[in-house]
Fold:
Amino acid sequence: MKLFLSYSRDDKAWVYELWRALRDEAQHDAWIDRRLVPAQDWWGTILDNIEACECFIYVMTPLSVASIYCRAELEYALALNKPVLPLMLKPCDYPPSLSQRRVQYQVISDDMHMDRVLFRTGQGLTEIRIGLIQGKYTPPTPPPPRPALPTPASEPEQVSEVFALAEEAAAENNIPLAEKLFQQVMDADPQGWGVEAAERLTEIRWERDRGRDYLAVVRMAGNPATVRGARAAASAYVRKYGWDYDPKGVLPGLLASTTPGAPNWDRAELHRVLDARLSLDELRQAVFDLGLDYDNLAGETKAAKARALITRLEQRGQLDRLVVWIKANRNDIDTRVVRPGLVGEAPETVKPAPTLPPQAPPAAPKPARPALGDRMTDPDGVTMVYVPAGKFMMGSTKYDDEKPPHSVTIAQGFWLDLTPVTNAMYARFVKAGGYQKRDLWTPGGWQWVQANKKAGPNDYKGFTQPDQPRVGMTWFEAYAYCRWRSGRLPAEAEWEWAARGPENREYPWGKDFDPRRVIYRPNSGDKTAVVNAETRLEGASWVGALDMSGNVWEWVSSLYKPYPYEAKDGRESLEDDKEARVLRGGSWDYVFEYFLRAAYRFRNFPTSVYGDLGFRCARSS
Structure:
């Protein structure tokens, strides 16, 4: 059957799961606005699919019932005499238009497995199919007029909904629709949301103009006949927009010899910038963001602290993270090229030590205790970062399953994989016979391996490069792999602590969303991005862990249970092989920023297999 799914954005994760199940398991032609803005005429595309559907599935929650878009979709479907199948996902008021028609709804409980949802939905679709054959849903003649794109009243709920849709249109680079929606917000609430909408409209127009002008520079640079013009265009571009946006890397080559101030640093210059260009507060913030303790850096002056910071980062092989930090936080400072060299002074001349009589060998030094952000390579060649013990506020006030915010203590430090597990890492587990080693699996996981005759993971076309994250992972497989590495999956509280830190960051890198620091649908190209020690350093968490937001959802050990988090309440049980487990971090397949927050909780059953489910391992210190 041709199906149309109407829903609110706060329940997109669950609706996507339902859509996949209807499409892949029940073989229905189910339509969803998966790409929020699939065409410039977004609203027209939605109306086209309502007109074409044989059943309108209405996923009811308080937000969907209140949504001006969902309401308009429902009323148009009823005007067309389309059969409606309501699914009540969260308790809410039943729309009068459905109550008057005596349309029965199906309640979806929190513990209802998707197989059960499909079964109950299938029963309703069978009744609707019979009604279609009997001519019960004959379209009206003449057809009703198409509704116009809904416009918000001054109510905050409506205005915020349109603002969110405008942001998503901008993220999909549909600037005409974003402009139209932001203008609606400005008209409906000129003194409130409208002020923000006006600022965002100015920003996205500036970004559009910058992209257009940059593309002109790239085109001229690629044509030998217009290289001289490309230099002039690049010079004008840099004067207007600066050096920050150069995805093709063409600006230094065009302007390095002609433009004063073109970025060309050595390490002495890097030290000078830290000491002279950054304020003391900025230097402190940089040290914290890079996973170090300012007070523990050698020296008393700012210059000495800066020199110690450079030295510590060099020892870890992370000097590039400092350059990325400066670039992200001070776009008035050029940081394109950093060359090896000395930091400030020349090294001291080391005098040869006098010859001494033989003595007993000194006692072996005690191994240093790991510190915040330290890295190590485990016996399997995987880089891990150290997460110290500490205390933070877990959860948030944004969504019910994140409430209440509560204090959680991580009593013991632990090691965490620098990146999600890659195909190359996981291939070693498969080659070592991991699917044949009973002791690596939970009882339910081993039953799953035997029942499905599993000898390896599910592969997805376009997702199999060695350095892409390993996807298609059930919770059982993630658990077994971590056991094989003498590690474990991180607990939910450990994962959130590693992502948020003592500042309780909204995103791993800080308070505000920045699409340059994350792989999600607007920039993913419909697949995962490669991961290594050098990728997306600007998106690192406070401990230096990479890609904790976006790219792949990450399984954790914990069962999906309400807050407050309490490790001893059974949620860390490994014996429950049927209830949903928690996933964290968002993925390449999600548009909305709130999915990418460090506090956001997603869930799936331990046998779930999708092209955006991955994981990373932890190891107790």
